């Protein structure tokens, strides 16, 4: 593998921001879709599947930048303070062990779903299906990350994993406590972001790696992208001040989708040269 593209987690606004960034880079002459490997976590798994589908980038961007129209009775999800508090407990219980932390988050996710505090699995499949231009695994390498609830282990789901693309992306987007765990081969799985916002280390075999990270934090046993890619040539692009303002506090708010996409596209002009230096030489 020569070039790896890592797409991190960041909710609905993260999908929009990354799509805008990719569109802006393409406009500047840097086509990141040529990556030999794409690794997506949560929102990044959606963007990865969209980019690998062959859908024109401008078409993907046009959707993200279009005005959001709420469906009748639609409720906007959020990662509430109570959910964040449970995450903090899991970080503490992890005591620096990523798998222990992920098991705690997985157990919380299962309990929330059993208590009826998340959408149904069928509702989640329907929501993810709407975001995927194709339900077939692409011919080019694509990895969607998810965490096995029972073991706390990270899984890189790809065309050889035995699960469908829909299942893989739904599992990668199963935010603990917000959305239901996804059963894969009889085992519950949650968002790959439970282990890392980026999981950039899955691209360490690439000679150079570009990371688009709506969120990139080191919390508890979590590590930032640059730490995960130590010794590998890489660039990490995070939201600038304008993009952070557009994304806002609730990354699951679709009403902020269009301004997040526009901010990502505008930011591309500022990072295009350093991305080009990484990607094109």
In whole angstroms, the N-to-C terminal distance is 15 Å
Percent of residues in beta strands: 5-15%
Structural class: alpha/beta
Count of discrete alpha- or pi-helical segments spanning 4 or more residues: 10
Tell me the Rg in angstroms: 17 Å
Kindly state the percentage of residues in helix. 40-55%
Task: Quote the average pLDDT.
Answer: 96
The H-and-E topology, N to C, reads as EHEHHHHHEEHEEEHEHH
Number of strand segments: 8
**Low-confidence blocks of residues:** none
Q: Quick one: biggest sheet?
A: 8 strands, mixed
Shape: globular
Overall description:
The protein is an alpha/beta fold and 281 residues long. 43% of the residues lie in helices and 14% in strands. The protein has helices spanning 11-27, 43-52, 57-65, 81-94, 98-114, 121-131, 165-172, 225-228, 241-247, 257-280, and strands at 3-7, 37-41, 142-148, 154-157, 182-184, 187-191, 208-212, 233-237. A hairpin with a 2-residue loop joins β5 (182-184) and β6. 49% of the residues are buried.
């Amino acid at each position: 593998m020569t070039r790896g593209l890592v797409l991190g987690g960041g909710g609905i606004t993260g999908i929009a921001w990354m799509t805008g960034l990719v569109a802006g880079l393409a406009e500047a002459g840097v086509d990141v879709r040529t990556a030999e490997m794409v690794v997506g976590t949560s929102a990044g798994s959606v963007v990865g599947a969209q980019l690998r589908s062959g859908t024109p980038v401008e078409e993907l961007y046009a959707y993200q930048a279009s005005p959001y129209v709420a469906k009748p009775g639609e409720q906007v999800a959020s990662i509430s303070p109570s959910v964040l508090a449970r995450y903090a407990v899991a970080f503490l219980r992890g005591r620096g062990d990523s798998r222990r932390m992920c098991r705690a988050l997985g157990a919380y996710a299962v309990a929330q779903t059993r208590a009826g505090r998340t959408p149904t699995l069928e509702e989640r499949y329907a929501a993810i299906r709407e975001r995927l231009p194709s339900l077939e695994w692409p011919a080019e390498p694509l990895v969607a990350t998810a965490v096995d609830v029972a073991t706390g282990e990270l899984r890189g789901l790809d065309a050889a994993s035995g699960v469908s693309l829909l299942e893989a992306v739904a599992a990668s987007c199963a935010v603990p406590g917000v959305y239901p765990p996804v059963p894969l081969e009889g085992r519950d799985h949650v968002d790959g972001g439970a282990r890392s916002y980026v999981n950039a280390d899955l691209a360490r075999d690439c000679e150079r790696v570009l990371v688009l990270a709506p969120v990139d934090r080191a919390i508890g046993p979590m590590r930032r992208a640059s730490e995960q890619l130590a010794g590998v040539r890489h660039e990490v692009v995070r939201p600038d001040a304008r993009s952070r303002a557009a994304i806002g506090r609730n990354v699951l708010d679709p009403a902020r989708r269009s301004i997040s996409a526009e901010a990502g596209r505008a930011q591309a002009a500022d990072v295009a040269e350093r991305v080009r230096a990484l990607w094109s030489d």
